[in-house]
Amino acid sequence: MRKLAIIGLSALALSLGACGQKTEDPAAETSASAATGPESAPGVMVTDAMVRLPAVPGTPGAAYFTVSQGSGAPRKIASVYVEGAQRAEMHETVTKNGISSMQQVTQVPIEAGKSAEFKPGGLHVMLFDVADTLKAGTTTEMTITLDNGDKVSVPAKVETLGGGSDDTMEGMDHSGHDMSKM
Questions:
Q1: Predicted confidence (pLDDT) at residue 28 exceeds the cutoff of 60
Q2: What is the β-pairing status of strands 44-52 and 151-159?
Q3: pTM for the whole structure
């Protein structure tokens, strides 16, 4: 009986000792922790991410995407970051008396089973000081931060302005924006 207890304790000591050893694939360990850590927003998915380059260098570009929440408590999009833009602001296009203008939005709610669509003529992200390194036909990283600190990062296609009337910002009143900070 004593031999059995010693064998059992020895096996336990060996298995506990193995816990402190490094795994053979540290990248797999990092990926698993990143998928469950604060960089991950459970139940939230970002699709159709796209960055539209400015038509004229030095003017703002735009970003569009759709955020869906499958389940969980209601969340709010608190900010958006786009690699290659010094500043990104969420905006909404508002039309009054036939005149379209933009107003900055500080949070965008997303509820379980619903989506928030960022598209031309509605919610969108204005990108200021877009780097020359962003080129059409490539991708860049877009990160959505929620009100609880969770983040979702996705690749965003980089495109040029299509020239269609729905895709342009012509005819919008930009007087409410301080363009001197661009």
A1: no
A2: parallel
A3: 0.67
